[in-house]
Predict the 3D structure of the following.
Amino acid sequence: MSTSDVSYAVAVVSGCGLKRASNEDAFGISAEHGVYVVCDGMGGAAAGEVASALAVDVVVRLLSSRSAAESVAVPLDDVVQEAIRAANEIIHSRAQRDPELLGMGTTLVGLVTEGRRVVVFNVGDSRCYRMRNSSLVQISQDHSLVEEQVRSGAITHAEALRSPHRNVITRALGTESSVEPDLFELKAEAGDLFLLCSDGLTNELPDPLIESMLAADLSLNELCTRLVDAANRAGGRDNITCLLVRAES
C-alpha cells in the first residue's frame, strides 16, 4: 500500500425521528481541517439543543484553528482534550447562569484526521464505528450504566439490550464542572469507513444490521439516508444522526 496520505469524503443526515418534536442532536464538519463531530443533547425545554450546539461550535472551532506551527509543537491528543474541556466549561457555566438551562448536557463523539492518523474521542454513549473489509467494529466505548455493567461482568450484552437502565449515561459534557473524555488513535487505510452516530441509531438498529447496510455499494449520502430511514422504521423513538467519513486513496 502507498504510504502517501489519504483524503476523506463525508456525508451526514440528521432527523427528529418519529416521536420527538425537535432535534437535540447537532453535528459539525470542518473537512478542510479533518474535524467531524456529533453531539446528542439532553435537558428540559430547549436546553439539550443549546448544549449540543455549544459543544459542536467550541470543539470544531478549536480543533480547526490550529496553525501549522501549533500542529508541530502541541500534540494532537492535548489539543483534543483541551477543546473538550473548554466546551464542558462553557456549557456548565452557561447552565449555572440560566435557571432554564440548569442540568443541561450533551454527549460527544468525533474524530480528527492528520493524514492517515485518526484520533477518535467521545464522552457519553454516542458512538464511533470503523468499517474495514466489510467488518464493523465499535471504536468508542459507551459511558453508560449498562456498558459499565457489561465490562465488569455484572450483566451480559443481551441483558444490556433489555435493561430498563440502558439510556442512563455516566459521563456527559456540561453536567459537571469537569469531564474526562476517552481518546483512541488509529491509522486509516484507504477504504476505511467511519460512522459517527447518536444513540437514536444504535438503539434501533443492531450492529450486524448496520454492518450489512454499510456494505452496500452506495454513495455516502445514500448510506446515511438508508440508516436513518431504517432507524425510523424500527421505531424512531429518538433523534437520529448518522455521519460517515470515508478514507480514500
